[in-house]
Design brief:
Elements (H helix, E strand, L loop, with lengths): L1 H8 L8 H7 L6 H6 L4 H26 L26 H21 L4 H19 L4 H16 L8 H12 L7 E6 L2 E7 L3
Antiparallel strand pairs: 1-2
Helix pairs in contact: 1-7, 4-6, 5-6
Length: about 200
C-alpha cells in the first residue's frame, strides 16, 4: 500500500526527494495498523508534502518562463527520461530543478514543432502552469482519501477501485447515460465557468 500510494501521487519521481522517502519510511509498516483504527493521517501527511513540492515546481517553472525562457538552450544535445518509475529518487533540490528544467525544455520543443513562436510558447505554458497552481489549492480531503483507498484496494485486487461519493455519482451517471442537471454544457476558461451551449429537453 505504501509503495502504491507513492506511485499514485509521484509516478515519475519528479516531486519527492530521497530524504522525503526516508521520512515517510516510518509509515511503511504502520499504515495497516493506522487503517484498522481509522487513522488516515499518515496518508494526509505524505500528500501534504507532495502538494508542497508540486507548488514549488509550478512556481519554479512560472519564474523560469517569466524570465523569458533564457535559461533554455534548444541547440545543445540533451536527453530527458520520460519513464522514471524505476529510477532513484532525486537526492537534492538542485537535481529536482534539473529534472523540472528538462521537462520544461521538452514541452517547449514540442510546441516549437507545432510551429509556435517562443512568445506564444511562453504565454501558453505560463497560463497552463498558473491554472495548475490554482488547482493545487482546490484538492479536497475527499480527493486525497480516494487516492489512498485506491492504493489499498488495488493491493488486494488490481480490478477493484474505491470511489469517493462524488466519483461514485459520476460513475453511475456514465453507466446509466442519464443525468439530471441545469440543462447547460459548461466549461472552464481560466478561473471562470462558461456556458458553452444549452441542452434541449
Amino acid at each position: 500500500v505504501f509503495d502504491r500510494y507513492l506511485s499514485e501521487i509521484d509516478p515519475m519521481r519528479v516531486y519527492f526527494l530521497s530524504s522525503d522517502i526516508k521520512d515517510f519510511s516510518a509509515y511503511r509498516y504502520s499504515l495497516d495498523d493506522a487503517l484498522v483504527t481509522g487513522d488516515a493521517s499518515p496518508a494526509f501527511k505524505i500528500y501534504g508534502r507532495y502538494e508542497t513540492r508540486l507548488a514549488q515546481r509550478l512556481t519554479f517553472l512560472i519564474r523560469s518562463i517569466d524570465g523569458g525562457l533564457k535559461g533554455l538552450n534548444l541547440d545543445e544535445p540533451d536527453s530527458f527520461e520520460t519513464n522514471r518509475e524505476n529510477t532513484p529518487w532525486p537526492s537534492s533540490q538542485a537535481e529536482l530543478e534539473g529534472l523540472w528544467m528538462k521537462a520544461l525544455k521538452s514541452e517547449v520543443l514540442n510546441l516549437r514543432l507545432e510551429g509556435k513562436s517562443m512568445e506564444e510558447i511562453g504565454k501558453t505554458l505560463s497560463k497552463r502552469y498558473h491554472n495548475q497552481l490554482k488547482r493545487v489549492s482546490q484538492t479536497t480531503s475527499e480527493d486525497v482519501f480516494q487516492i489512498f483507498m485506491e492504493a489499498l484496494t488495488t493491493s488486494y485486487d488490481p480490478h477493484s477501485e474505491y470511489y469517493s461519493p462524488r466519483s461514485s455519482e459520476n460513475f453511475n451517471i456514465n453507466m446509466s447515460l442519464s443525468l439530471e442537471g441545469i440543462g447547460a454544457m459548461l466549461s472552464v476558461d481560466n478561473e471562470y465557468t462558461k456556458v458553452v451551449h444549452l441542452i434541449p429537453a
